[in-house]
Amino acid sequence: MLKKELRLKYKTLRKALHENDIESMSLAIANQALSLPIWDKTYFHIFLPIASQKEINTEFLLHILAGKDKEIILSKSDFETLKMMHFLLTDNTRIVKNEYQIPEPVSGIEVPSKQIEVVFIPLLAYDKLGNRVGYGKGFYDQFLSECRPETLKIGLSFFDPEDQITDVFENDIPLDYCINPYAIFNFSIT
């Protein structure tokens, strides 16, 4: 399927989810993450969900990361440049929703992309090859291109993968893993 068709399909599927389902599936995704071979890493980037878009509640993953004393990094988006700035989450971090209802840090200790070892990625859809579909602005492709090649890219989804996204572009950066409530998909196995 084309990205445009997948965006429509998965926005509709997410819209139909009940709050209780979102919470229980988000918890299941966080529990699945515990079995990934990532816990020797230190710098973890995570997104805060856009509640109105019924995104995965990453609060459960945040608790796991904090409990394991990981350095947690959040981003702030610049919609003029389509770039993200990354900040260390501390006790003093103030989170504010931007005009698109994305919760973001106001400011803080900036962290360079090259320092980040694991990135949890929001997405609308993904396929069996690890290709992903987001909202279409390219923020994450830009960000991931700035990371080191060995940075682990982990998608989070409520749903199973599609067979194939047919309009993948050269600059699209695939996932290493995707976690849904029932399984972990490993795309780096050759």
TrEMBL record:
Substrate binds at residues 50, 55. Its cofactor is Mg(2+). The lineage of its organism: Bacteria, Pseudomonadati, Bacteroidota, Flavobacteriia, Flavobacteriales. The keyword Flavoprotein does not apply. The keyword Calcium does not apply. Belongs to the 5-formyltetrahydrofolate cyclo-ligase family. GO terms for molecular function: 5-formyltetrahydrofolate cyclo-ligase activity; ATP binding; metal ion binding. This is 5-formyltetrahydrofolate cyclo-ligase. Its EC number is 6.3.3.2. Keywords: ATP-binding, Ligase, Magnesium, Metal-binding, Nucleotide-binding.
